[in-house]
Amino acid sequence: MNFSSELIERAVEAFAGLPGIGKKTALRLVLHMISRDETEVSDFAEAITAMKKHLKSCSVCHNLSDNDLCRICEDPSRDPKVICVVEDVRDVMAIENTGYFKGRYHILGGIIKPIDGIGPEQLNIDSLVNRIKEGKAKEIIMAISPTIEGETTIFYLSKQMEGFDVSISNIARGISFGGELQYADETTLGRSIMARTPYTLKK
């Protein structure tokens, strides 16, 4: 692309650096911003800057939060004894959109992928085990994408929970093997949570 302005070119490059945004879409967004009122553009930039500067990780479940505890962990209507274990924040958002789940969450921050150098020590596993040790859970729901790496992660987590008075369940297979939770439709995902089945640790 040829630009008449270096400022526009820099802005296009910045937008194009976002996932799923090509140069043409980036240019369309930049031209849209140019047509907006200066105050509106400043508010947009301030919102992004404030998010990056002040956003925190929940000290309990590792969800994104404005405060030390996220809104879900602070909500007294949620069942603290039922913990849904997910890979990342997008999975929490997907499950919340179903409206079916009324417990709390634990975000691992990924799944075990030895080929990518991601082992248990890179994930939020110790804090999950500590929540169980402290007697803060009666059921752990493994809402992890049904891939080979996801199954490996579930197996590892289950081994860490041996000996604790906690039940482990798996989401129902409404989610096809190899699929990712965040891309499942809300009805299928919600039913998979509600129709969860006990997880049996294979020896």
Written overview of the protein:
- The model has no long low-confidence stretch (mean pLDDT 88).
- This protein folds into 2 domains: 6-54, Orthogonal Bundle (Helicase, Ruva Protein, domain 3), CATH 1.10.8; 64-198, Dna Topoisomerase Vi A Subunit, Chain: A, domain 2 (3-Layer(aba) Sandwich).
- The strands form 2 sheets. It has a 5-stranded mixed sheet. The chain has a two-stranded antiparallel sheet with strand order 1-2.
- The protein has 8 helices and 7 strands; from the N terminus they run H-H-H-E-E-H-E-H-E-H-E-H-E-H-E.
- The termini are far apart.
- Helix 1 (6-16) crosses helix 2 (23-35).
- The chain is of the alpha/beta class.
- Helix content is 42%, strand content 13%.
- It is elongated, with a radius of gyration of 21 Å.
